[in-house]
Amino acid sequence: MTTLVRRRARRRAALLQKPAAAFAAVLLGAGWAAGVAAAAPSHNAQFLLMGGTATGDVAVLRIADDGGLSPVGGSPFSAGPGVLSVAAAPDSRTVYVTQVGAQRVTGYHIDGNGAAHPIPGGEVAFSGGPVVTSILTPDGRFLFIGAGGVPGRISTFAVSPTGALTFLRETTVTGFAVFPMVTVDPNGRYLRFTSAADAKIHSYRIGAEGELTSLGDPVPGGTLPVNPGYTPDGRFVYVSNEQGSSVSGFAIGDDGRLTPTPGSPYATGGMPHAAEVTSDGRFVYVPEVAGGAVAGFSIGPDGALTPLPGSPYKQPAGSYPGLVKLSDDERHLYVADCLPATVTTKVHIFDVGPDGTLTRSALPSVDTGTIFGDGPILVKTS
Fold first, then answer.
1. Are 88 and 94 contacting, i.e. CB atoms less than 8 angstroms apart?
2. 154 near 212, Cβ under 8 Å?
3. Which of 109, 252, 352, 365 could, after both became Cys, cross-link 348 (CB 3.0–4.6 A)?
4. Do 96 and 110 meet the contact criterion of CB atoms below 8 Å apart?
């Protein structure tokens, strides 16, 4: 585990220190619109997108009716150095890719073939601190971009119907922010700025014009808190403590403030890295990078977590799961590697039982062609 932690730390540090030119040498693919199959697009097609942090690209995988995955023609497509975030709009065919190496955010439209086309006016550049993650409000009106530094920053952009971005304002975040992750509650009323460096979660109310108002002092997270996951009803949020081998649970009050759930934090295997909650709010799944497994929990009425029977669920040998995403019918859980022994990232599939338990699926794993996945970079289109 110590070696794995050091490898991830070195890779993260390199993303912040190396200039964009150094990353260009490792970009894969010939561009977002290149190599697309000539077949007529399917407007009903659904895709799973996976960012490559080290390679500066994004894989697009077609989701079959049976839940199986296959890369689209030309995937992975080049985006820019240091992809650490992929944010999907409500239509899920519009995504914004955050590139820490290039210090920019670029918007793309995903067509029926899975090809991505840059949005005119949908790219913004930054300076003065590492831009790390971005998130859209559930109605798609605003894009928030989190940046590290002392202090941290949140930049707010209005999103036009075409996907073009217009800068509105910048909000400073007190403390020492490194690898901050911004998320928005399912009701769209509150934004959370999770700072891994100082282990704090800052909360803001989102105004009618996207303005942010602090809800007061931040609450403490665990050691290196990352990738919060919400229950769809917005009552609870779960934050993986990457270097704490635990998940912190919080109840969300009517005023947006956070209160720890009973028994929080909850023990996991080494290096938990995300949280994915079922649509009925009964179960949550947490990938364990160092543990090579996925932890499953049932969620109590008070938000407390109880391990599911058989949890944690082991991945194939040599894989280190970092991200998870449920299929629309929630019969499958897609589990993406973070640091696979095979170098390129694979997505493995689990079948989800009625009781929330996981079983390795007969559907095959698929190689994305990307290398090293970090941050919230796994999204699913409609």
1. yes
2. yes
3. 365
4. no
Which amino acid appears at position 278 of this protein? Answer: T
Residue found under tokens 């058989």: 310
Task: Supply 366's token pair.
Answer: 């698929």
Task: State how far the Cα of 292 lies from the Cα of 285, in Å rounded to an integer.
Answer: 14
Amino acid in the structure at residue 96: Y
Q: What is the largest CA-CA distance in the chain?
A: 54
Q: What digits encode the pLDDT tens for the residues 306-361? A: 999 999 999 999 899 999 999 999 999 999 998 777 889 999 999 999 999 999 99
CA distance 87 to 137: 10
- Rounded to an integer, what is the distance from CA 32 to the centroid of its chain? 20
Complete DSSP assignment for 7-63: HHHHHHHHHHHS-HHHHHTT--SS-TTTT---SPPPTT-EEEEEEETTTTEEEEEEE
How many Cα atoms are found within 13 Å in the side-chain-facing hemisphere of 177? Answer: 27
Question: What is the spatial order of strands in the sheet that 131-136 belongs to?
Answer: 131-136, 142-147, 152-159, 165-173
Residue 94 CA from chain centroid, whole number: 15
| pTM greater than the 0.85 cutoff | yes
Residue with tokens 């890295």: 273
Helix or strand (DSSP H, E) at 284? strand 283-288
Q: How many CA atoms lie within 13 A of 224 on its CB side?
A: 14
